Q: What sequence folds into this?
């Protein structure tokens, strides 16, 4: 109660001071930095100075109220918007409101020092929200819903909430949020990209590719959009278009491993095994810790009848990965240090979705291992099961389908 009374008194003082200053300069104008400063801006300036004093003393609740009073008189003051964001952030529990103030400050003058600082705070808050809500998507959805309530004309919270719906597998709700983000901002390349991913996860590849097309048109420097479209083409069996997109992604970001790995997967599916082998090698040079590139490099070398090289490289490559994490146990199967039954028993996660996904991967790589052992009938059973069980956006689904087509001819 005492805190609320103090806050109410401060609000009255702020209004009174603002009114007195406003009256004192009601007919006054002066030139500052080449523009006319109005009486309301002068009145607001007094309040902003009070807010700065409160903020420096750590009285952030009072600072918030004073800044807000001043912004009613001068709503486009970038400095006050930024410091209001800082005060809200310092209070704790007001991150969405702080984010809104930083975004407003950044939009007022993106190229100023404060515009850059506001962008940095926006990025920091978004990262912290994702880290905080990792493993708790419902809490993230609640936060983004609150952000939408605070500013329903802001496209970003719709896009962000759509991404969280996607992690929950609710692609229809994700698409609805991306639709709204695009309606609010038709130039929102990332929303088109994200909606394309949602369509792809639903198996609607034509719609996915159309959205990736638009994302690339709006932002032709986005290597990830090329990668996403390339993977959609590959899943459709259009390997030439897929490789062209992966080539484009590599031209844009030649140091990123993923495009090399994806191009290698596509070439492997085409039957261009030695080219795939080279791509997996390039991926490992850029990211030696990528366990999937280790696995696929071994498979490509073995399929190209370079088995001695595959065996000699596997152990040193495996030393660079985290052996405590899935899918590292698959390397033990390829190295001959475990068997199929033991591998399947290593799928022990209690999360049912993660368990299904790991089991799908294990089944696919067991099928690949069986092919290398010359046990084609067993491999067919494993690959058919992987194609049936794996999510359509998994590389193992695409790869199992490609292997089954090859084996049927």
A:
């Amino acid at each position: 109660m005492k805190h609320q009374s103090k806050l109410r008194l401060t609000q009255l003082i702020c209004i009174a001071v603002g009114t007195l200053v406003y009256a004192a300069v009601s007919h006054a104008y002066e030139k500052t930095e080449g523009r006319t400063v109005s009486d309301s801006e002068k009145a607001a300036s007094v309040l902003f100075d009070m807010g700065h004093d409160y903020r420096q003393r750590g009285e952030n609740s009072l600072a918030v109220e004073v800044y807000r009073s001043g912004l009613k008189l001068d709503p486009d003051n970038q400095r006050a918007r930024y410091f209001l964001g800082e005060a809200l952030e310092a209070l704790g529990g007001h991150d969405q409101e702080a984010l809104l103030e930083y975004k407003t400050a950044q939009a007022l003058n993106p190229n100023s020092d404060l515009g850059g600082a506001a962008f940095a705070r926006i990025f920091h808050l978004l990262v912290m929200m994702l880290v905080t809500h990792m493993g708790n998507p419902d809490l993230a959805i609640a936060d983004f819903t609150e952000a939408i309530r605070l500013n329903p004309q802001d496209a970003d919270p719709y896009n962000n909430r759509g991404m969280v719906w996607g992690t929950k597998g609710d692609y229809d709700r994700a698409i609805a949020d991306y639709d709204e983000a695009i309606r609010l901002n038709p130039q929102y390349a990332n929303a088109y990209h994200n909606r394309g991913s949602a369509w792809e996860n639903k198996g609607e590849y034509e719609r996915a590719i159309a959205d990736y097309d638009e994302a690339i048109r709006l932002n032709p420097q986005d290597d990830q959009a090329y990668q996403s479209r390339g993977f959609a083409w590959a899943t459709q069996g259009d390997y030439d278009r897929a490789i062209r997109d992966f080539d484009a992604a590599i031209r844009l970001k030649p140091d990123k491993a993923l495009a090399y790995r994806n191009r290698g997967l596509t070439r492997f599916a085409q039957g261009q095994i030695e080219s795939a082998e080279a791509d997996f090698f390039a991926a490992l040079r850029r990211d030696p810790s990528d366990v999937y590139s280790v696995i696929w490099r071994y498979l490509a070398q073995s399929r190209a009848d370079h088995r001695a090289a595959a065996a000699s490289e596997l152990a040193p490559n495996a030393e660079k990965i985290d052996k405590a994490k899935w899918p590292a146990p698959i390397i033990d199967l390829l190295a001959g240090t475990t068997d199929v039954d033991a591998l399947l028993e290593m799928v022990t996660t209690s999360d049912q979705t993660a368990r299904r996904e790991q089991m799908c991967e294990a089944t696919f790589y067991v099928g690949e291992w069986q092919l290398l052992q010359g046990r084609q009938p067993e491999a067919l059973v494993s690959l058919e099961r992987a194609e049936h069980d794996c999510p359509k956006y998994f590389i193992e689904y695409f790869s199992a389908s490609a292997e089954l087509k090859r084996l049927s001819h």
